[in-house]
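Convert to structure. Protein one:
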Amino acid sequence: MPERIVAVNRKAQHDFEILETYEAGIVLTGPEVKSLRQGKVSLAEAYAKVNKGELWLYNMHIAPYDPVLQRNYDPRQPRKLLMHRREIDRLMGLTQQRGLTLIPLRVYFNERGYAKVELGLARGKRKVDRRREIIEREMKREVERALKGRRSS
């Protein structure tokens, strides 16, 4: 069974410069897993943070699973992430010192059927950086168009 992507954080590539990526498991309840399999998840404002030596994912929205009545269910509750101790310690040092943040890039089910989240160690882009990126993209398109025009004639 190949890897099945459930949700992708498209805005992360636009707003952040991704330096490194990590894979982490997510601690979920049964109904949350079923809701995840239906694709009812949003990573729009989600971020990860080390709290008391444990890695937690905040603001990831998992919609309630309809067939199961869940009392007092908070779709945005913090969810624990599973990583090796060495990796968590390294991430804690990086995020505290350099002003970096952990952003979930995508949520997926791996080959064994476990829910995983891909985290990106990211630095926020400033407005100037985003504008420069747009200008470079436009210039690249113009060059492609010019080359395409010369090839066809």
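Protein two, convert as well:
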Amino acid sequence: MTPEEFLEWEKTQTEKHEYLNGLVYQVYAMVGARDAHVTTAGNIFALLKEHLRGGPCRVYISDMKLQIDAANAYFYPDVFVTCDPRDRAEDTCKRFPILVIEVLSASTAAYDRGDKFATYRKLEGLREYVIIDPDSFTVDCFRRDTANRWVLYAFEGSATVEFESVAFQVPLAAVFENVDRTTQPA
């Protein structure tokens, strides 16, 4: 399937699908995400939305497509931020994020850390890729440095999470607000 065929086909679907180099994949979250996943994604979206209010950046949650031209891909990140004015002209898809966040689930963890991250790294303007794990209450922020290397900044316990791309700092406890540790899988 070509990208154009995918975009036309997806308009008629009742569920979200991702596209990677001619192949179509059903988005896992559509079959019923866990409370911890939805709550965590909602928390980080709300925190970023408040932080970015009134500025040039926009934050999007999982219903907005992200196009990755260099990989011939379309994904639905859990949360992402774009500050590029070119993205304002696009209604159903964005292409220039500076921050992408994925909230892990058991079925997507390996993919989010591996092949999906490799695909996101092809976004030239992407400055940070964040993986939030609601089971371990940790945040891994991969930040692109001036030498174009991706450096891991890990946050856990009572740490303050920092996303340099949007000058954002928040206590880790706020990211996991209302996520019940007692209902997490072992």
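The chain has one domain: 33-64+76-180. The CA atoms of residues 16 and 82 lie 21 Å apart.
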